[in-house]
Amino acid sequence: MNPIMNTDQNKATYRSFIQIVFTEGRLDAVEEYLSPKYVLHDARPGTSPGRDGVKEIVSAFRSAFPDLNISIEIQVAEQDMVCSLTTMRGTHKENLFGIAATGRTVTVTGLKMVRILGGRIVESWVKNDETGLMKQLGAKPAETTEENEPVLMR
Fold first, then answer.
1. Which of 1, 72, 125, 127 is at a distance of 20 to 30 A from 46, taking alpha carbons?
2. Domain 7-139 has CATH 3.10.450.50
3. Sheet with 120-128, edge to edge strand ranges
4. Residue 111 burial by Cβ neighbours in a 10 Å radius (0-12, 13-18, 19+)
């Protein structure tokens, strides 16, 4: 079997992963979708970069947003790569990143890039609008100082 499946199959695999693991919260399915060598690039500090990290993230978000729903708005695929524009919606019912439940409903966009080989996700890059999420939850942005200011801004 060709380890690089066609782009339609790869897009369907990612859509299914998002639906089953994130929206339905089925952590038992993580191993079905993620390769044993899976790497989560851009993991939050303190989060495992592998399968366990995904389980931690899903658990945190499903706890904070019990009605969590992630929809895929647009997908583009080439060879073994799939890029998805997503929209996450949910009601903040429990603590998330130290922010107590607000009861607010949030909508957060994100970009995800995954590499899929043999029907399993082997690595991913995730960029969600975390600043937008924090604003919707009423969190104040951290004060910028010269020490924490991005290098490009100096």
1. 72
2. yes
3. 34-41, 120-128, 105-117, 81-91, 69-78
4. middle
β-pairing, 81-91 with 34-41?
Answer: unpaired
Residues of the chain with pLDDT under 70: 1-5, 141-154
Task: Using DSSP, state whether 135 is helix, strand or coil.
Answer: helix
* pLDDT of 23: 96
How far is it, in rounded angstroms, from Cα 13 to Cα 93?
A: 30
Model pLDDT for residues 114-141, shown as the tens digit of each residue: 999 999 999 999 999 999 999 999 987 6
Could you tell me how many residues make up the chain? 154
Measured CA to CA, the distance from residue 108 to residue 34 in angstroms comes to 24
Q: Output DSSP code: residue 70.
A: E
Assigned token pair, 106: 């949030």
- The SS3 assignment for 113 reads strand
Instruction: List 88's β-bridge partners, or say none.
Output: 70, 108
Tokens at 70, concatenated:
């992630």
Separation of alpha carbons 58 and 24, rounded Å: 10
